[in-house]
Amino acid sequence: MFRRVKNKFLRIALIIIYFFILFTCAVQINFLGLFGASPTKKEILLPSLNVSSELYTADSVLIGRYYKQDRDPVPFDSISPNIINALIATEDVRFYKHNGVDVIGLFAGVLSTVGGSDRGASTITQQLAKNLYRTRYKDSQGLLGKIPGVGIIVTKYKEWMTAFKLENKYSKQEIITMYLNTVSFSNNAYGIKSASVRYFDKLPSEISVNEAAVLIGMLKGTTLYNPIRNPKNALSRRNVVLGQMQKEGYLKPEEVKTLSQDSLGLNLNNQEVRNSNDSYLRTAVEKWLEKWAEENEVDIYTSGLKIYTTIDSRMQKIAEDAVALKMKELQRRLDNVWSGQEPWRDKEGNVIPNFLEDQARKLPAYAYLKEKYNDEAKVFEELNRKKEMEVFTWDGMEKVEYSSMDSLKHYISMLNTGMMSMNPYSGEIKVWVGGINHDYYKFDHVNQAKRQPGSTFKPFAYVTALEAGKTPCDKYSDKPVKIEFVNNKGEHEIWEPKNADWNFSYSELSLRHALARSLNSVTAQITEEVGWDNVVKMAHTCGIDSKLESVPSVGLGSNEVSVFEMVRAYSTFMNAGKKTEPILVKRIEDKDGKVLAEFKSEQKQVISPENAWLMGYMLRGTIEESGGTSQALWEWDLFDNENEIGGKTGTSSDYVDGWYMGVTKDLVTGVWVGCDEQSIHFKSSATGEGSKTALPIFAVYMEELYKRPELGVTTGKFPEPTVEIKKTYNCPGPRVRSTRDTPDSGAVEGETEVPALTLPEILQEIQGEEEGQE
């Protein structure tokens, strides 16, 4: 074909052009897999970026991000001209004069490199092609890429072709914007906005000349010129960028002279950057979205979503402050209880031998040292070596001379908590406090931790009785109970429950009064009558998912459940018998603001509206009835405007777990307090029962909420019943005077019965008294 061309030079030129076209086509179609994949037309039109998703509260406060690369794209007009000028002067001075590949700049770059200049040969468009389409990664390499020298030539050529395509599709402004939104600035900051916030706590539009020079200077080597890790190198590189800006006419010599005297000016105090990837709420939302993300084939880490939770940031802050205030006091109390003693004890109160050493053996540090020394004695010698460190305390981070074993003892002896607050009608979760500090305790105590709820589980026995036809005024005797049964192993057992103080009054009490005083004796009788299998079934019906062992003691909270489950189940009482599925996310938008999904609670009628209303009335009895276990709430300013509150305290065996479940007309709130290690706990009801640990957190939280009516939580009476209440319920119990505090479910020693009082009279008499019984 080429022999017909007589002119030798023309023939050679045509052959070169022919093979150039053939080579280009072969590269483009990845002939025989030799060259690796090139971006398609669709990928050029719609380049995909790994954009971080943002997490917001219901009131639009940014509380975190999900990302594989912390990227938050911004438009061109949100980027300071200082950044644009620094980039062009340093990376591509002929940016506005070429079409993606700068042939003149290529030769000039080679010559300048020989002459010692820092200017590179690649254009900004070529670098964008490399960033967008990962041209230098293995998945973009073909068989020829395995040949040294050949692979880089093929890759470079593909980048040139891609750069031409980008230039034909996008304007110069669009290209430089895409570049700045894709490039890495180290420290997991991808894109100019993430970098500006991370290093200077500023938006890109606010970046100064010197700050722009620091950021653009990093592009030559994000590790070598990292201003955090290598500040001297970063300072030197910044001044080189300033020199380039002067050379290209963006700065005057006197400006460079002044600017080069300044420090780096870093500001690394941005709270959102430090904490956005480290919170109980962020982790909980991620888990909550797992099913939705899978069904919709969405990766929340790369899709640039805006995720709006149901959490109210102001209520969350009030809850966190309440937790911090009361947990500080509780920790001091626990420390005083065990002052000078080892707190880890078995059921008989004896110190557990080798407890701390056994805990240390679970640590990654132990495994590392064991592999290093292969000698446990040497391992513990290292773990007991003291050094300066910081530890978390309720008075702030404290510098101490601790060994690793000292640190382990410190953290394992700290009380933790879980708290959740929810609107029982909409299912929207308003508060989620997963623990005391996510940096040191990753385990979420709202939905991951399961603990014995103690007497907070009793309402499920009582609602089972109501559903079976009982009324709040039915009478039961506070007397010893003996229940014979066959356990799940087929063995014959006898269960004789005691009240918490081991006393029985032998008085007749209504169901409401018995629940108010949390009597084990009456709960056991009810459970036997309705059947413990039915109590288990009722708990599951109301919202408990955990496996429950069907035993006579089930109504006393012998199984383990989560705060999340308890709040969901108690909400059934407040929402007219409808089980309300909690929701943590309200809506999800894409990066352009288009709503992708909205979430509403699933609700199902599971108990009668009449019995649900009666359960709310009975829960109020713990405050309104004589000897009620929630009467410690009178110590707080909670009862203006005829406000009604219901609730239930709970304490597990040996005061390991303290609970409070509180219900108001607007919210259902659950609080748990205890140590993660269950062998560490309080010694007595005076220090460790739920009314002394969890209830005060609820009380402080509600007291502060009532001061902020604009948040939608106000004082007032419970909702009126939605159906006619046919059962007898208004039967106030007798006045019972106590000579001392009694624990949860405890009968009162030295009680005297007096004629029944009307409800208003009881409220007047008990208001302000400090019975605080549980």
List strands and helices in order, with pairings.
Elements lengths: L7 H22 L11 H5 L7 E4 L5 E5 L3 E2 L9 H11 L11 H12 L9 H10 L16 H20 L2 H11 L6 E2 L1 H9 L8 H10 L12 H17 L5 H7 L11 H5 L4 H9 L1 H6 L10 E4 L3 H25 L17 H6 L3 H10 L2 H8 L3 E5 L6 E5 L1 H9 L2 E8 L6 E5 L24 H10 L7 E3 L5 E4 L5 E4 L12 E3 H6 L3 H11 L1 H11 L20 H12 L3 E3 L4 E5 L5 E4 L4 E3 L3 H16 L21 E6 L5 E7 L4 E8 L9 H4 L1 H17 L52 H8 L8
Parallel strand pairs: 1-5, 3-4
Antiparallel strand pairs: 1-2, 5-15, 6-7, 8-9, 8-20, 10-13, 11-12, 14-17, 15-16, 18-19, 19-20
Helix pairs in contact: 3-9, 3-10, 5-6, 5-7, 9-10, 15-27, 17-18, 20-22, 20-23, 20-25, 22-23, 23-24
Outline, from the CA principal axes?
Answer: elongated
Number of DSSP E strands: 20
Largest sheet: 5 strands, mixed
* Structure classification: alpha+beta
Mean pLDDT level:
85
The portion of residues assigned to helices is 25-40%
Helical segment count: 28
Low-confidence sequence ranges? 271-276, 736-742, 746-774
Regarding quaternary structure, what we see is single chain
Could you tell me the strand content as a percent range? 5-15%
Radius of gyration: 35 Å
Termini separation (Å)?
A: 102 Å
Cross-sheet strand order for the largest sheet: 2-1-5-15-16
